[in-house]
Design goal:
The chain is mainly alpha-helical and 104 residues long. It has one domain (2-88). 82% of the residues lie in helices and 0% in strands. It is built from 2 helices and no strands. It has helices spanning 2-74, 77-88. The chain is rod-shaped, with a radius of gyration of 41 Å. The model has no long low-confidence stretch (mean pLDDT 90).
Length: 104
């Protein structure tokens, strides 16, 4: 009878060990699924961020092109002359300045 009890306890012990192992494996699988889900969500958020940042880069590149055009225009004689006349009131030596002030 003792041998039978021992075998019975051994089977119960193996059964409990298997249940524990299955529980641990299920727990690990659950944690893995949660981690993968979080990583997937984070990845999607970052992809959306990348799209927004790429749009911002395109906009800034367009602004840069416009500024380069303005910079090149500012190097022209016509721009320099226009600025000198309008902002500083400069004229060529052979010109006469006639200033017509409006009455208020």
């Amino acid at each position: 009878m003792q041998k039978g009890d021992w075998m019975k306890r051994k089977k119960e012990s193996k059964k409990k060990a298997m249940i524990f192992i299955i529980f641990v494996l299920m727990l690990l699988i659950g944690v893995g699924i949660v981690q993968i889900s979080r990583a997937y969500t984070d990845n999607k958020e970052r992809e959306a961020e990348v799209v927004v940042l790429m749009e911002m880069i395109k906009e800034e590149q367009l602004k840069q092109l416009e500024l380069l055009k303005v910079k090149e225009e500012m190097k022209t004689r016509a721009f320099i002359e226009k600025t000198a006349r309008s902002k500083f009131g400069l004229i060529y030596p052979d010109e006469t300045l006639i200033d017509i002030a409006e009455k208020e």
